[in-house]
Amino acid sequence: MSANREKDDQVQQEKEQPRRRQARGERRIAQLLDAAAAVFTSTGYTAASTNAIAREAGVSPGTLYQFFPNKEAIAIELGDRLMHEMRETYGEALAPVDPATPLDEAVGAAVDRFIAFNCEHPVFFALMHGPDIPGRIAEEHDALHATLLSRIEDLLSSFLPDAVPADLTRTAHMCLGMYKVGLELVLGHEGVERDAYVQELKNALIRYLDPLVGDRPGRPDPARTAT
């Protein structure tokens, strides 16, 4: 019985070793991606280097190369993970709402969700809007942009049920453009100034949409949105 038990223990240990190695590898990858996010955010993608990323992670360049062949591979992996999380974010933030929902409430909730994501992951803005991002990231960002516009149209249709498709698309483009400009200002400030810019962004979107929405249940009080 003892021999069988020892054999079973050995088999169990052999099974656990690959799992432990895999877990260590996943932790190391996460460590490298966190370091890359910090470097890309502070220096931009173009100026970043694998040596700087390894240094930020506290590992040797040789250790980094065990997991990623170059800087582009790191950026692509980081971008893939961020875009997956962003898709989950806009899926929650841009779902159609009850038409009776106040406009300022709907706009505020969507803006808050997106601002929170970008403040938590500032590298997303650095990667997606840099001048020399890898081609695959640019392609996936274009696809994300198209889907995001479609979801904004879905949300707007809750407030503009009679709008023709061309008008709805144009309005969605304007909203997204205003958001991107506002986001850059938001990320460029901290503390109370950041909060103030977030509110200015909400106000700008509400003031743009309010005349389009017109009289409807839940229409916000203009005096409320002007504060």
CA-based gyration radius:
23 Å
| Tally of helical segments | 10
In CATH terms, what is the architecture of the largest domain?
A: Orthogonal Bundle
Largest sheet: none
Structurally, the number of domains stands at 2
Tell me the helix content. over 70%
Question: Any overview of this molecule?
Answer:
This protein is an all-alpha fold. The chain has 2 domains: about 1-70, Orthogonal Bundle (Arc Repressor Mutant, subunit A), CATH 1.10.10.60; about 70-225, Tetracycline Repressor, domain 2, CATH 1.10.357. The protein is about 80% helix and about 0% strand. It has helices at about 1-45, 50-55, 60-65, 70-95, 105-120, 120-130, 135-160, 165-185, 190-215, 220-225. Helix 4 runs parallel beside helix 7 and helix 7 crosses helix 8 (about 165-185). The radius of gyration is 23 Å and the shape is elongated. The termini are far apart. About 25% of the residues are buried. Keywords: DNA-binding. InterPro entries: DNA-bd_HTH_TetR-type_CS, Homeodomain-like_sf, HTH-type_TetR-like_transc_reg, HTH_TetR, TetR_C_22. This is TetR/AcrR family transcriptional regulator. Pfam families: TetR_C_22, TetR_N.
